[in-house]
Amino acid sequence: MELLLSKQQGVRQLPQLPQEAGVSNRTENASRSQANQQQDNAKSAERVDKLGDMIKKQTINFRAFKRTVATIEVEKLQNKWEFEDALKCLQSRWVVIDNLHWEIEGENGDENMWYQNEFSEHEKIYNDLKKTINSKMWSETHRDKSTPKMDIPVFQD
Question: pTM for this one?
Fold first, then answer.
């Protein structure tokens, strides 16, 4: 706005012309838009950093999961408690991975194809091994229950 000096040295403001108002509003809108864009960029960078940290944690979880899977030797499991223990170890590793997976999905992790492939591969390993352990445990339990028990008489001289 421009100032106009009157004869009595009084200062008054001239009203804005419609053209000037439009220029002023455009300048204000441009500066607001620029500030919003900077905030959006900062939020986006923060989100990318957070997503990167979560994927890094998940990579560590995947390695721990692989170690757990490598220690489970299904062929050597015989007793019910061994099967249950193996399942419990497997499930405890997987719960951590699954929980973090949903957090990653919430941060647009579904756009990261490498991560999606890794997760799918580990999920398949988990499901296959869990099924194998449960099947073998069921067959062992079934065999123990269905095999007839025979008392062997003790003969005394």
Answer: 0.64
